[in-house]
Amino acid sequence: MQAAEVKIRGIVQGVGFRPFIHRLVREHGLKGTIRNTSSGVTMELEGEETAINAFLRELPRKAPPLAVIEEIRSREIPVRGFERFTIIGSERQEERNTLISPDIATCPDCLRELKDPTDRRYRFPFINCTNCGPRFTIIEDVPYDRPKTSMKAFPMCPECEREYHDIENRRYHAQPDCCPVCGPQVRFLNGDGEAVDGDAIELARRELKAGRIIAVKGLGGFHLACRSDDPAIAAELRRRKQRDEKPFAVMCRDAEAAGRICEITEAEEKILCGARRPIVLLKKKTGGLEHLSENAYLGVMLPYTPLHVLLFGDDIDTLVMTSANLSDTPILKDNEAALDELRGIADGFLLHNRLIQTRCDDSLCWVLDGHEYFSRRSRGYVPQPVTVPQLKRHILACGAEQKASFCAGKGEHAFLSQHIGDLKNLETLEHYEKQIRHFERLFDIHPELLVCDLHPDYLSTRYAQECAGKEQLPLIQVQHHHAHMASCMADNGLAGPCIGLIWDGTGLGTDGTSWGAECLVGGYSGFERTGSMLPIPLIGGDRAVKEPYRVAFSLLQAAGCETDGIREAERLKKQLTAGLNCPRSSGMGRLFDGVSAILGIKEVCNYEGQAAILLEAAAGESGEHFPVCFVPDEKENSLLRFDWRPMVRALVSERQNGTAIPILAAKFMNTLIEMAAEQAHFAAEATGLNRVVLSGGSFQNQYVMHHLPERLRAMGFEVFHHRRVSCNDEGLSLGQLMIAAEGNI
After folding, report:
1. pLDDT tens, position by position, 236-287
2. Treating both helix axes as pointing N-terminal to C-terminal, what angle do 610-618 and 588-598 enclose, rounded to 10 degrees?
3. How many domains would you assign to the chain?
């Protein structure tokens, strides 16, 4: 007989962990106790040594779907002679370290009950258990008990109460547990907000089939849904929502339906059908989907709530399912706000009376090397933390402006926020500030240090400065691209110096200019800039971001090429010559924009990144590239600047000679890949470093991400890209936190 104390850290509360342990203990003939603690669970086990060892081997492999085991520690203790295995009261510690599960898609067991006419939860749109359902979006505070969730408004009926207290039942301590007798209810309202009698879901299905646009209240907010097979209906939704060209996401009934419109690899299907259910960007099959997405990819997700499953039934394959929000504002989550703000946009409303405590947009990703590669990390993943080296103090990192996020850290955990949006208006700022307070309360974080971007005009910077002044806390400001580099390092668990290739649209450099095509060398404690590109004059400043023809003119003018084909050429020339509102930028995003306009792909953008996205979509395959030239920097001999002028001249010449646009687009991106390879080689020669991290919004380009790592690995580099957080500005708050934690800035 032996005894062991076993401590488990991670997401192990409210996820069916104790019933699972109870069953596993019984299988191995063990006795003892288990209790929740502020850091996870602690067990005392007694039994044969072989049985205890077998239990420990099987524990992580058989754990419930929602459990996330970060660490298992065991040590031998004296035998106490337990007679049975029991659950004892929770241990309260001075500091709370409880983790909270993200919202998880309906599990197979609940789906089976949902479709079983003999089950008491047949066609109940809020069916859930300890293995699935809402978590993050309904919690108000910890500990995670029903009175501190949105379900406090729905007292359990005797039958649900019995299940809740039965450790053998899969709904044991499932806080959202409910049924048609005691749970939330759905209702359908017409476009004027008037209730319509009848089965709410069937009424919504009827309207959708008839071609109408329906607002659907989901898990973390409202969607606008309509048929996807009729371009006229999609065009009407675009008109009403004022979303002229930006792609729509769709929801498909199952993977088979998704496979009829998109190519799906085995790895993509695994993530598409997994418990987290993000929107997965899949390559479209040719033809017929241009009204949904103008580029090569279509965002596809599968139903992740029982309400969605019922909405599709057996006869609807695919629906447009786009976030319901007004331009540049957070997704709507409350019934009254939806009825008010979507009037005239939605023809009907499928509502329910469970409060969404925390809005949470759908996550959005590609699948790269078999893993999620995020453009937006939100529902299904937040608030699961990223594990980092032990932080000496509580830190709040405030992120940037576009794709704003924050990261609150303590101990070994960095808690990144869900998708917030661009911090450009009061509504988004209020959402941002509210979520910071929510995370601090949930995870018992009391910031002792604040960190933000260098840019003085970002609302996140102003928030950090005001908070630091009010609370008398130290504030660190971190260069934008250094934060990107550190984010990718932390994402991959790297320490020590690396080479960082950081490509994005813009970020304030340490010299006061706009950076964005950078090769950096360093780590959390500091960096040196060893590579960049010739800056591009942005005629009209920020207008050039939305009007890439302005960037095209600057590129052509500098390269000595004809500019007659560019709109407003004479006026642009005068403005450029006078230097009036023509800030210079080395942003990679601007180079993509300008080349897209030169090739006639997109001259004026209707949404962020449109020109670059369509340039990628236009690309074919080519093994060739344009000239890769560098010029010495005027001030720094150690800075290798890419000279894009010879490339532009060659591109224009080939276009005039009839080379096809797909070949030119591919050769342009191949040129950038060769540029990056040369800069990485230059940095490695100077430092002896062998590890390269890739970060920044321009690395959302999948052509580059399928070719650049391959090129660098062929040169002998170890290459790391993002896997757990977004490569764009949404992910850089993690880097800010790690730099601040290093404490040497």
Report:
1. 999 999 888 999 999 999 999 999 999 999 999 999 999 999 999 999 997 7
2. 60
3. 5
